[in-house]
Amino acid sequence: MSDKKLVNWLFKTGAVRVCPEGKPFWYTSGTIGPYYINTHFLYGSEKKANELLEAIDAFKSNKLGCPDKLLKLIDANYAGDEIFKGLIDSMLEYIKNNIDLAEIDYVSGGERRDWFFSLILAKLLEKPHITIYKDLAAVITENGETFAAQSINGARVLHIADLITEASSYDRAWIPAIKKISGEMTHSVVVVDRLQGGCELLERNKICSFAMVSIDKVFFDSALDLGLISNGQYEMLLKYTSNPRDSMKAFLKEHPEFLENALKANDKTSERARLCMDKKIYM
To answer: What is the mean pLDDT of residues 169-197?
Structure first.
């Protein structure tokens, strides 16, 4: 699969959204920035992805029953959605080309968005799947049966995730959950790497890290070439990825009305703007 095809899919499904020129998004942290990434929208659309998240929330209280119910839904979508099938087939080929499958005993995925990709890929790779929950509980699905994970006796695990930023979920939950059952996470494959230190954290933990696409200048070059973003958006994105804090500090200095208007806006926007002020993020 060409990088441009994946870039196109990310924009087409709304998995990547870039702000209009001069109107960065307010993030929940009280910071601002020019783009959002919701990789799970590659399930086909935002609507489809949200429906699967609702199903996960309905199923996950039954830890043993959840993986099978989810896989049935994901299987059906894989058969019927061109973008999702294209992505999964490309990930499958990528994994086979970059990782020696003889060195992989299990595939794992963490609650919730990893499961969009890990369950179906485990099936296609013919590997048992370890479903990891946020409380570090884990269940194994193998040969059509799901059971509570006990010791896997040093078995090697490939973790599949939707997105990696700083790898905080890996550090907090996914790596400890695999260690808890005496396994070793040796590889990680993600759809999107935001290049914010996650890969380096995994490497420090002796985990080989792979990504289908990275959010960098090459990514934005492709988006510009495809006509998915304007020149103004492109310049803002490059400044942001080079230095998120300084670029947005400079933007607010050049556009003081942006913060003033945000403080007067709807509850969510004004709340985030006040948080920005209180934490003195760009002072």
So the answer is: 97
Kindly report the average pLDDT of the chain as a whole number: 96
CATH numeric code, 49-218:
3.40.50.2020
| Strands 106-110 vs 129-132: parallel, antiparallel or unpaired | parallel
Tally Cβ neighbours within 10 Å of residue 143.
5
Residue 1: strand, helix, or coil: coil
Within 8 A by CB and 6+ apart from 169, the residues are 110, 161
Read off the pTM. 0.94
CA distance 215 to 221: 10
Secondary structure (DSSP) of 127-165: --EEEE-TTS-EEEEETTEEEE----TT-EEEEEEEEES
For the chain, residues classed under CATH 3.40.50.2020 are 49-218
Return the axis-axis angle of helices 66-80 and 46-59, rounded to nearest 10°. 160
